[in-house]
Amino acid sequence: MMLERVTGVGSVGQIAPTTNRSGGEGFSNRLESAVQSLNQSQVGADDQLRAVAAGEDVDLHSAMIALEEADIALRAAVSVRDKVVEAYQQIMNMAI
Predict the structure, then answer these.
(1) Domain extent listing, the chain
(2) What is the rounded distance in angstroms from the CA atom of residue 76 to the CA atom of residue 82?
């Protein structure tokens, strides 16, 4: 699969697949899906926290569970990112 940088007004520059020879879901699509899922869990937990802080009628137990799930998902994403960066650095330091 070949990747190309896509830029637009106000965008940060996203990587989009140009072809997908295997016929399955591409890496960039999977990565984007994972990041969107992580973002949704963070936003949902933040919304519940705001509702609790505002004194709205919210189940405190569900809010705390949502916060912990978002925290665990973020920690897992950071761990995966660290492993990918470490692998990249090892590859770049290999002697040819």
Answers:
(1) 29-92
(2) 10
